[in-house]
């Protein structure tokens, strides 16, 4: 009897010790293996949607100054970065050959004018001879025959024709002189516009040959001290947003590598060009951004990193983007009532991937609209619970909350803490 009691007592002690050890140990292991989540808070404030692109800074206009006549450069009056005014003398081609041509054509013009005077004298002589012959015929004197009268008449007509030829020769000589004077003037290379010399392609003493193609001497950028253009290439997926921003006169912000800490905020969309280009199956459109340059910080050829403002909200409830991307990796960690959401999301993803190439236009549009309906996850202390939300515009960190059962200050799950 005593043995049985001892055995029962010993068993009770063991059971008690086991129970005392098991439940705390099980609770400890359960708490230790429970996932630890990272959270971010729902906040409110300003929210702006941007489309980013890169572009190249260029002058509003490039004026290439060339040479019409050939010859060696005798003098050069401007250099790189010089400010010039319209009509200013930039360079001079050796004018000696052209000056001699002007003198030759001037002499030829004087010769032609002298020939006109001689032709006028002959015409006057022929007119006088014809008039005297007609007077004799009128008096019916048999001094002159009809043949002689005809000869005098036709001599007068021939003299008039000679005068016309001489006068035409004067016009031709005057045109030649004007042409040679123009060529002489072309030896003086003058600025057609006000601007800044951004490129000089000649040196003093260099010989120009303009017979086949006008050689380029200078490149001048007018208005560079006032404004510059940025030529950006925007993906076709974003061009609709860019055109909407242009209609609303939304600003464009950008940075350049030369001033990494400075943001230029006064750009605006000047033009969305229709001349698309395709490279590696990517279609882009050129977008021209205009920006002031009164301090001459922007130089031709700089690379600009642009942010086109599409929409700006001064007050918005903002959901962290990481919360929208979070997907519970462990099904058991999700409340049983919400596990069907995981199944629905998984099936929807698989179906979307499987039928991506066979969807109609309406289906693709509907799919794009349905992406505005999302799920975020909250933690109730034991399980993850899903909250349906409808979202709007987003930036790099937050997305606008349009509708949903969450409030400012709610903590949303954005990930799991790694086990240590």
Describe this structure in words.
The chain contains 7 helices and 20 strands. By secondary structure, it is an alpha+beta fold. The protein has 4 domains: 116 residues, no CATH class; 102 residues, Beta Barrel (Elongation Factor Tu (Ef-tu), domain 3), CATH 2.40.30.170; 61 residues, Beta Barrel (OB fold (Dihydrolipoamide Acetyltransferase, E2P)), CATH 2.40.50; 84 residues. The strands form 4 sheets. It has a 6-stranded antiparallel β-barrel with strand order 2-11-15-13-12-16. Strands 3-10-8-5 form a 4-stranded antiparallel β-sheet, with no helix packed on it. It has a 4-stranded antiparallel β-sheet with strand order 7-6-4-9. It is rod-shaped and about 190 Å long.
Element layout with pairings:
Blueprint: H1 2-33, E1 37-41, E2 43-59, E3 63-66, E4 71-76, E5 83-84, E6 89-93, H2 96-138, H3 146-186, E7 188-190, E8 195-200, E9 207-208, E10 216-221, E11 227-235, H4 239-247, E12 251-256, E13 264-272, E14 277-279, E15 282-292, E16 303-320, H5 321-325, H6 339-354, H7 361-370, E17 373-379, E18 384-394, E19 398-404, E20 411-416
Antiparallel strand pairs: 1-20, 2-11, 2-16, 3-10, 4-6, 4-9, 5-8, 6-7, 8-10, 11-15, 12-13, 12-16, 13-15, 14-15, 16-19, 17-18, 18-19
